[in-house]
């Protein structure tokens, strides 16, 4: 407040003390107007600088908080190369309704990719509840199904607390409340030391398997969906079944990669209403050999932004994992997967 007080004191002193300010001539009026214009401009510039400084501080704090929530992934985890990107539909937000995490555990590398109903800042609370539960459960639970049940309980607990906060007079979920319709599509993936993949899918898009080559010889790059089986319902509206069908999806061999995404990618439309051709974009990305997670991510995300004119209507998350482990012979002629160092 010191600088505005000084500017105000200058203006008042000039008006009360300066003889020129008491005159009514044209020249005196011009000088007085100029003085008050300078004082007003100084005040406006000071307020503007103050607001910009506070806005920058708020952005730094928000960015730090959002990076803790959806923390940047390391480039390599337990022999897997990783690249990921998240784009929020809300302008200025780093994190939206999409979530992902990759954690190495004694049970294998475990991955979650999810999409909260809605998008942007309103979904961050649900993202925090699911990610927090996942980061704890993956180390404690040997079975992938038990991890999913913990995520279901964490989501239900979060929705109950949110409903009580939004409807203090209600004992439970209000059927007319948006909280009652909250759900999360979720893909849980486990990649074991030998590359064997186990998946639980709750209403989420299936990942794509990216191979460096295929038959016939000379054909470079191959893209296929990991599975086309009917997934479980999304978490939230319905309880999980008593038996959880963990699906075995073969092995992720050395040099192969997985592409995980949220539905904001395939549902993205251009100005003519056409959907983004994700399989074609992936096929183009894997033509460059060897397949690099960073290059696949750049190619697909750049194509998505071009397709939508730089403004996707929904949150978008992309995650690429490549198996960089190599097989070496052991004493009895078997083969084990080891990390490339």
From TrEMBL:
The answer to keyword Hydrolase applying to this record is yes
Q: Which domain of life is it from?
A: Bacteria
A GO molecular-function annotation:
protein serine/threonine phosphatase activity
Transmembrane domains' residue ranges: 26-47
- Enzyme class, spelled out: hydrolase
| Enzyme Commission number(s) from the entry | 3.1.3.16
Q: What keyword terms does UniProt attach to this protein?
A: Hydrolase, Membrane, Transmembrane, Transmembrane helix
**InterPro entries per UniProt:** Bact_Sigma-Reg (IPR052016), PPM-type-like_dom_sf (IPR036457), PPM-type_phosphatase-like_dom (IPR001932)
**Pfam families (alphabetical):** SpoIIE (PF07228)
List residues of the PPM-type phosphatase domain.
Answer: 80-323
What PANTHER family has UniProt attached to this entry? STAGE II SPORULATION PROTEIN E, STAGE II SPORULATION PROTEIN E-RELATED
The entry's protein name is PP2C family protein-serine/threonine phosphatase
Species for this entry: Streptomyces sp. R21
């Amino acid at each position: 407040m010191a600088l505005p007080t000084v500017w105000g004191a200058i203006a008042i002193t000039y008006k009360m003390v300066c003889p020129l300010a008491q005159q009514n001539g044209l020249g005196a009026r011009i000088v007085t107007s100029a003085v008050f214009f300078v004082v007003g401009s100084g005040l406006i510039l000071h307020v503007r600088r103050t607001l910009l400084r506070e806005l920058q501080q708020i952005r730094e704090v928000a960015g730090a908080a959002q990076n803790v929530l959806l923390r940047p992934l390391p480039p390599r985890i337990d022999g897997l190369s990783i690249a990921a990107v998240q784009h929020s539909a809300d302008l200025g937000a780093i994190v939206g309704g999409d979530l992902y995490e990759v954690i190495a555990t004694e049970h294998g590398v475990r991955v979650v990719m999810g999409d909260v109903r809605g998008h942007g800042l309103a979904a961050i609370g649900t993202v925090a509840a699911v990610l927090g539960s996942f980061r704890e459960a993956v180390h404690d639970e040997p079975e992938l199904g038990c991890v999913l049940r913990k995520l279901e309980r964490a989501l239900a607990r979060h929705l109950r607390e949110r409903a009580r906060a939004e409807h203090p007079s209600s004992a439970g979920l209000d059927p007319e409340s948006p909280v009652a319709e909250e759900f999360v599509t979720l893909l849980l993936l486990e990649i074991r030391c030998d590359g064997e993949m186990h998946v639980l899918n709750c209403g989420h898009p299936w990942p794509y398997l990216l191979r460096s080559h295929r038959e016939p010889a000379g054909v470079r790059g191959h893209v296929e969906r990991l599975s086309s089986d009917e997934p479980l319902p999304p978490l939230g509206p319905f309880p999980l079944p008593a038996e959880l069908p963990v699906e075995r999806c073969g092995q992720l061999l050395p040099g192969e990669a997985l592409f995980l995404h949220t539905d904001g990618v395939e549902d993205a439309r251009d100005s003519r209403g056409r959907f983004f051709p994700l399989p074609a974009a992936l096929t183009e990305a894997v033509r460059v050999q060897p397949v690099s997670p960073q290059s696949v991510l750049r190619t697909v995300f750049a194509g998505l932004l071009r397709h939508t004119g730089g403004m996707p209507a929904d949150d978008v998350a992309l995650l690429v994992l490549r198996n960089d482990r190599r097989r070496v012979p052991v004493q009895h002629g078997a083969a084990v997967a080891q990390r490339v160092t």
